[in-house]
Write a structure and sequence with these properties.
The complex is a heterodimer. Chain A is an alpha/beta fold. Chain A is about 30% helix and about 25% strand. Chain A contains 23 helices and 32 strands. In chain A, helix 1 links the parallel strand 1 and strand 2. The longest helix of chain A is centred in the middle third of the chain and has 20 residues, at about 435-455. The termini of chain B are far apart. The chains are: A alpha/beta, B alpha/beta. The interface of A and B includes residues 422 and 582 of A.
């Protein structure tokens, strides 16, 4: 008989072939059979160490095969696999000589270990006992490997937690007012590992409610330093759905524009998860694929009554077990208990999605105008409870706080959320999601569509916290998804190790720039010229923006008004509308401000080159557009015709008078100008900017239009351009939004799944057609 | 030059001014940053030349109106201090009575020596620039507003409900503890201090700009309050707004 030979009997080719490949790679000789009859024929001619047998087979059933094998080859050990476990079949299988059983889908590691142990424990001695062999208790493990599962006693777990507490802060789940909360754990006995759901998710340790980003000094000796906390901490008892939420946050904060504060916290955090065996009645984690996890943790516990199973998820987790705990290989029975516990937990969920989660993005896409949003949001208190308790919500606001001597202070971020009324409100007063219905829809779209599309991870982990927290009972994404599925008449029956993220502390730290010149444009508007203290260039493209900091006051997004072709300095034309702009307006030459950026995409220069360009600016829309006008003028030969249209409300509100005059004289630019309302001295055009468009003759086949102005202007200008036959792809616009962080994190500038500060602020009309809420 | 700051009180308990003095750790810094020229609780000297006026109390007598107007005319910036000045506060509870009856209840036989009128917040009489809310004010917020004024920055006072800060504090929801709370429609900024201390929100900071009062009332009813009880609860601090609606 071959020392290590396995016969795999399964009618499903995928199972048969994958097990064969896996076992052969691990060093076994493998034969396969697709039916009971074929298996019996093979066994007649050849001996095997172990048979892996599917119970449900076409023709002769697995049980019949077991019975016949027991008569012919009583020494052959069998491991039964089944997708449909029941006490009866497993008991009977054991009576018929099966050593153990596994539940489909079979984890190859588990099967391989079971086969190895079966061969090692039984040797070559044939046995005819009908009882399940009680294998000797495996020795205590010395080498712990990632992805393996072990058995840990409650005492050993206790000493693990206590050893950790000597080295770092340990937080875990505690009971408070009959609810569960994450808090510091003083002793192991306080720790609760069997709970339904916590009030607040553990993500608060990675993204605290309030967190200092920078500390600064203003005035003489001004400086700005990043503040980054690096406190080692272990979080014990995180349920798989929250682990999935942390995996999303890792994606958001550790990939593009890696966030130094998050990275420092994340890399200093040990995650010890625990399987949720008694879920909250409001949870629907299985529907979101988050009730179990194989990744995202250092260690994961499963309560199997007498002990815990512990699965190793990372090198960090492996070393913890090696240093602080005694673990041993689990017995087959313990593995089965783990499975049974997990399976039983699944039966305890009360809520389910009426559609597969994979269909949610499409379903939501088609339900944008559903009356559901309006009716469902009627009782919304805009209290933000749903977003505050959500583990996948990560939006924030950024504020400055100074000491009373006004000489030093800090810039901090604080939780914010799209369900709060002022979340998308900009300094000018415009609120881009002013009504409750659009806020509710945005949140549900984030949960079911935007986050998935942007980060490739589910945006809702089905924890049910929002549904518990919402006093108006309207917050549950599950209910929203199901209601939409219902109204769309679609009803269908219906599981990473932290990457090496580099800690770069500079993300939120502004570079110091000196104000070298100020010029008043109107009583409300000034143009400011800056130079970096380190004399470096800004390195921008026309149409990009920067975040301007006045330390102590705050930070504001400002479009760049000068072209990179005019080197050395850069200009920002600024209207006085909010705290930061007010502070800027009171500044004089020599003042120091902070600059982050440039940010955003800028105007699509390569798409404009070689084309006729029609530039349309309304009011202070000229501020960003001026950077492009200058660019085009400086590289005049790269472009065809250059037509510039500018409209101001009144002659007094015209901007850059010197440049306007120069452009109107220039043979290189066709310049047309109008004012909404003239005065006694005004001799030019009167009328809104749209009245200029019919007067200009351009070839829609080779013209690119670039439009920048107040939100209200776009609709009308687009209408006129379409009358001229200009295709959507050739109409380019720059959008205004509340771009608080500039690095695609804080969430304030989001339109549907797009972050204006990242993919924008410049878009083609063709792009915007698919972006509702844009104009 | 240091701005000159004055404190005034109208119908109130003067508790908010006492809280200003409670800044303790930062009191010396505060005194270094501003000149306090008028503060009855602290000093007897008075100066009628000031830049910033902090005003505590609601307006409940005719004679208070010209006094308030005079302060408004003098001050560059007027800041309402505390619930009485900001939203009328508890003084407005009497507004549902006839004034003669209110006088009789309080002063009985001596009622004829006093006059009164329905109480109102100071912005019902003169324009107010900024508000430091609460009963009593939070000293933290008072300092925040003061620093903003010194910087020439508009103070950032939350326009979202108490629930936000209550969640940040990690509290178990008052409704889940079998009590009733006005937090979902009341302006945050207090760090949900009452709930964190085991009580519930009484509404002393006033409503947010766009409160969903109907939904809040439905919720209070759903959790077992009668319409009258709901109204009574709102009226404790927000009687003035309740009538205005």
């Amino acid at each position: 008989m071959e020392q290590k030979s396995v016969l795999v009997v399964d009618d499903e080719p995928i199972v048969r072939e994958s097990l064969q490949d896996w076992l052969e790679d691990t060093g076994y000789q493998v034969a396969v059979a697709e039916s009971g009859e074929e298996a019996l024929k093979i066994i007649e001619k050849q001996d095997f160490s172990v048979m892996v047998l599917d119970i449900r087979l076409p023709g002769k059933s697995g049980m019949t095969v077991l019975r016949e094998v027991k008569a012919q080859r009583p020494w052959l050990k069998s491991i039964v696999i089944t997708a449909y476990p029941s006490a009866e079949t497993t008991d009977e299988a054991k009576k018929l000589g099966a050593i153990d059983y596994l539940i489909k889908p079979v984890i190859p590691d588990d099967l391989e270990r079971l086969i190895r142990e079966t061969i090692e424990s039984v040797g070559r001695e044939p046995t005819v006992t009908a009882k399940v062999e009680i294998r000797p208790k495996p020795p205590v493990v010395e080498v712990v490997e990632v992805k393996k599962a072990f058995t840990i006693t409650k005492d050993s777990l206790k000493s693990l937690v206590e050893s950790l507490a000597e080295e770092m802060e340990v937080v875990g789940v505690k009971s408070r007012h009959g609810k569960y909360v994450y808090d510091r754990i003083a002793s192991f006995d306080e720790l609760c590992l069997d709970y339904d759901v916590t009030l607040m998710p553990p993500t608060k340790y990675l993204l605290p409610a309030k967190e200092t980003l920078l500390r600064f000094k203003v005035g003489d000796g001004s400086k700005v330093e990043p503040v980054i906390e690096q406190l080692p901490r272990a979080i014990i008892g995180i349920h798989p759905y929250d682990i999935k939420a942390i995996e999303l946050l890792d994606e958001v904060f550790m990939t593009t524009n890696p966030d130094p504060n998050y990275i420092a916290r994340r890399q200093n955090t040990i995650i010890i998860g625990v399987d949720c065996l008694n879920p909250s009645p409001k949870s629907f984690a299985p529907c979101m694929g988050t009730s179990l996890t194989e990744t995202g943790f250092d260690l994961l516990l499963t309560d199997i009554s007498a002990a815990y199973m512990v699965t190793v998820g990372s090198e960090k987790g492996a070393s913890l077990l090696e240093r602080y705990a005694e673990v041993r290989e689990p017995t087959g029975d313990e593995i089965a208990k783990q499975k049974a516990a997990r399976d039983e937990a699944l039966t305890k969920y009360k809520l389910s999605l009426d559609v597969p989660k994979e269909r949610l993005p499409k379903l939501l896409e088609e339900s944008y105008d559903d009356p559901y949003w309006e009716s469902r949001s009627e009782t919304c208190l805009s209290c933000g409870s749903c977003v505050m308790v959500c583990p996948t919500c990560f939006c924030f606001d950024v504020k400055d706080e100074v000491s009373l001597n006004l000489k030093e202070g800090e810039r901090y971020r604080q939780w914010d959320g799209c369900m709060l009324g002022d979340f998308a409100k900009v300094a000018t007063g415009e609120n881009f999601r002013h009504d409750k219905a659009s806020r509710l829809r945005h949140r549900i779209y984030r949960k079911g569509k935007y986050i998935l599309e942007r980060y490739g991870k589910v945006g809702c982990v089905g924890c049910g916290r929002c549904a518990i927290a919402c006093l108006a009972d309207i917050a549950s994404p599950l209910e929203a998804f199901n209601a939409i599925a219902e109204s769309a008449k679609i009803k269908e029956a219906a599981r990473r190790i932290i990457r090496e993220a580099r800690l770069e502390t500079e993300l939120y730290v502004p570079r110091l720039a000196e104000l070298v010149n100020v010029e008043e444009l109107t009583p409300r508007e000034k143009v400011f010229e800056f130079k970096f203290k380190d004399r470096e260039e800004l390195g921008h493209k026309p149409g990009q923006f920067v975040e301007v900091s006045v330390m102590g006051i705050g930070e504001a997004p400002i479009s760049i008004s000068s072209s990179p072709t005019r080197d050395g300095t850069f200009q920002l034309a600024i209207r006085k509308v909010g705290n930061v702009t007010n502070a800027l307006h009171s500044m004089e030459k020599g003042a120091i401000v902070g600059i982050r950026g440039p940010f955003g995409n800028g105007f699509p220069l390569s798409a404009l080159e070689g084309k006729d360009v029609l530039l349309i600016a309304g009011g202070i829309g000229l501020f960003p557009l001026r950077s492009l006008v200058q660019y085009v003028v400086d590289r005049r030969s790269s472009f065809g015709r250059v037509i510039l249209l500018f409209g101001a409300r009144s002659p007094a509100e015209r901007l850059f008078l010197g440049e306007l005059a120069a452009w109107s004289q220039s043979p290189e630019i066709e310049f047309h100008e109008t004012v909404d309302k003239g005065d006694e001295n005004w001799k030019g055009n009167v009328g809104v900017i749209t009245t200029l468009i019919p007067k200009v003759d351009f070839d829609p086949r080779k013209t690119m239009a670039v439009v920048v102005g107040p939100p209200i202007m776009y609709r009308f200008v687009i209408g006129e351009l379409k009358k001229k036959g200009l295709p959507d792809e050739q109409i380019i616009m720059s959008l205004e939004r509340r771009m608080k962080c500039g690095v695609g994190k804080c969430g304030h500038c989001q339109i549907n799944s797009v972050y204006v500060c990242q993919e924008g602020p410049v878009f083609t009309l063709a792009q915007l057609r698919n972006l509702r809420e844009a104009v | 030059m240091k701005p000159k700051v004055a404190f005034f009180d109208f119908t109130s308990c003067e508790g908010c001014q006492l809280d200003v003095l409670n800044v303790e750790a930062e009191l010396l810094d505060l005194l270094a940053a501003v000149d306090i020229v008028n503060f009855r609780e602290v000093k007897t000297e008075r100066e009628e030349n000031y830049d910033i006026a902090f005003i505590e109390g609601s307006i409940s007598r005719e004679s208070e109106i010209p006094r308030l107007q005079k302060i408004r005319n003098q001050a560059k910036v007027v800041v309402a201090l505390g619930a009485c000045a900001c939203i009328g506060g508890v003084n407005c509870l009497k507004n549902s009575l006839l004034m003669a009856e209110a006088l009789r209840i309080v002063y009985q036989d001596d009622a004829r020596y006093y006059d009164t009128m329905p109480a109102r917040p100071i912005d019902a009489v003169v324009p107010v620039d900024y508000y430091v809310r609460g009963c009593p004010i939070s000293t933290e917020e008072f300092l925040k507003v003061t620093k903003s004024l010194l910087l020439g920055k508009k103070p950032e006072i939350p326009n979202y409900p108490v629930c936000v800060e209550c969640k940040m504090a990690g509290n178990v929801c008052v409704f889940e503890r079998g009590m009733f709370c006005l937090g979902p429609v009341i302006r945050a900024g207090c760090n949900a201090i009452c709930i964190t201390s085991g009580r519930y929100c009484w509404g002393c900071r006033g409503l947010v700009d766009d409160p969903n009062v109907d939904s809040e009332k439905d919720i209070l009813k759903k959790y077992g309050l009668t319409v009258d009880q709901v109204t009574e609860r709102f009226k404790i601090f927000n009687a003035y707004q309740e009538v205005a609606k």
